[in-house]
Amino acid sequence: MAADPLRRLRREIIFFFLFRFPASLMRSQPTGGFFPEGMPRHRDRCLEACFRKCLCIQTFESHPLLSIEFNQRSLFLFNAVKPLLPSLVLSILIAPAFSETPSTSPSSPPYVIGEEIASPEGPVDAARPVVKLLVTQFAKPNIHYPVVEDTIEIFRKTFGRGNFSARVYSGETRDIGDADLVLSSAGTYGRMLGGGARDLATVVSSFAPDPNHAEGALFITLRKRADIDKFEDMKGKKATATGPNAFAGWHIALGEIASRSFNPDRFFSDLIPSGHDMTRELDLLRSGAADIAVVRTCFLEELANAGEDVSDIKPIAVKPGIHPAGCLSSTRLYPNWTIFATPRLSAQNARLATQALLSMPSGPHDLSWGIASDFSSVDSLYRAIRRGPYEYLRSWTWRRFWDEYKTYVLLLFFSIAGLAAHAARSSYLVRLRTAELKNALRREQESEKKARIASERMETLRRAGAVGQMSSIIAHELRQPLSAIVSYSQGLQRMLDTDVRAPADVLLEGISSIRSQAERAEDIVGKVRSYAKGEAPARVRTDLGQLCKKAVRTLNDARISPVEVSIAAPADTYFIHADPMEIELAIQNLLRNALQAVANTANGEVSLILDSCEGADDRRRAVISISDNGPLQNDESFEKLNSILTSSKIEGLGLGLAIVRTIAENLGGRLKFARRRPNGLTALLILPLQTEEKRSHES
User: Fold this and answer.
1) What is the b/e burial string over 282-318, where b = at least 16 CB atoms within 10 angstroms of the residue's CB?
2) How many C-beta atoms surround the C-beta of residue 601 within 10 A?
3) With the CA atoms of 218, 221, 222 and 228 taken in that order, what torsion angle do they form, in degrees rounded to the nearest 10?
4) What single string gives the DSSP state of each residue in 474-517?
5) Region class of 317: left (phi > 0), else alpha (psi between -120 and 50), else beta
6) DSSP class per residue in 88-135
7) Which among 248, 292, 285, 251 has a CA at the least distance from the CA of 269?
8) If exposure means fewest CB atoms within 10 Å of the residue's CB, which of 311, 340, 530, 667 is most exposed?
9) Which residues, listed in sequence order, are joined to residue 217 by a DSSP beta bridge?
10) pLDDT tens profile 451-482
């Protein structure tokens, strides 16, 4: 160490002397078999290569104190001083015995777990606690080893030699114990985050200037293995690594396997630990004991630079352009070696430690301490491989269930909550709508009840009106035949009152007329009864001209008015499909109204004209025009002609016109009125004529 340069010089000269064997002897021994465990292997292999080749132009930059360059001149010098070497070596070996202070320097890496590499020396400051540093047993070889020795020395100066100690530990979080500082991989720091660890500094070098992206892993195999060319070919093969808990030597490789959607626990068929010695992994590959080796990034490049022949090694699944120094890597890069403080370290000592680390001079390969700002990649790695703080994911626990399925659980929870809210809202809306429907139904029932009561009242009124109307119709229609019967009876009676014997034919004619009017009265009563029963009238083919003549003759014979009704009917025959009794009643009603209208008019005239016309639908219709020269109707009286009256008053125009209008509309016709100038009124009864097609069908 830097604290004992004499011992380090002695060690280097011993190594130098031990390997001045002939090249033939060196070639006859296994690689690395002559080198002690106290020296990093890649340095030993460089010396071995120098003596094996008898010529080596190589600078030992990795040695803290020595920089020896071999060439032809140095070899000549070596042969010249060869006789003096035994005495020189002997003096170096016995020098410690005459030293005043025994050396307490730790052994060179790699260290043994539990080894005390720095013990408290000198006076102890009782006011200050002893700061304890743990150093992970890193895999050999590694160019970062010098930074360990320099860090221990700078901490001794910072905290005092009597208040500082350093010990090698396994790298497991459970073995940290009462340590204050830990120098380990970024993986160990990542596993300690849950225990309150806080990073202070991270290694930087010329090979890895970015402390966030420095360490990676490389999958290698023998070049002769044609069956292993790509990543998938490694599945099911035997692998060798520095150890199952190594970060760069194993965990980073597992993270790459997981990132490619493989199960990292079942990807390789077997794992052969190399005991933290990556050079032994090459021996396992070459001997056939392993198919795949996992080494750290830059390991092959360092061996090649040291003169090691690695031409038989083939890298697998290399990611181009990953490493800033051009080293091969099969994985992404992670933070470098890190010193972190445990919760036991005081804030004052944490500040002193950080200042000491960041102010430490650079060593070989620009080794120094920097600040890493992103350890999230380490956390993601351990989550993917389910190790470290995510070890619980390897077995089903509530915590694992929550971590893996919390998104779905929350989604399910909010879905159920949403459904519950929707159900509650729907239930509320259903109740609200049900109440509205009940109210609407109640209002509808009340409306129906009111409508039923009103309908019953209207039906009662209608029945009363119907009874009154029927009574009026009977009184209205029976008046004419009864008047005729009375007239004929009075005439016969006057004949019988005289002494003159009446001719038999005259008596027979009077009796026949009385009988005819009685039968007509009976028909009227029967027709009214059929109306009351709702029976449809019997319609037949009827000669409208004959019905008009019969109605005029009946009125003229009854002598209900001194005015004689005139008729004008064409020679053509007009047939309609109707009930003859109804048509005759309608014509007589209109004629009787006209006779009543001219009752008080001098030279009163009533005429009936039968004609025809074509409607808008090109169908021919019969037109019965009944005109009088009675008083001129004013607007109010003319409008009342279209009103339906239910009065029982026989005089006037309401009841008879309602009957006529009903008969006409039932036949598809209509009743119209027109005022005559200068006075009088014309009633137009328009009825559809029977077509030839319908006439032939009835025939």
Assistant:
1) bbbbeeeebbbbbbbbbbbbbbeebbbebeebbbbbe
2) 15
3) -130
4) HHHHHHHHHHHHHHHHHHHHHHHHSSSPPPHHHHHHHHHHHHHH
5) left
6) HHHHHHHGGGG-SS---PPPPSSPPTT-EEE---S---TTSPPEEEEE
7) 292
8) 311
9) 296
10) 888 777 665 655 554 555 556 566 656 666 77
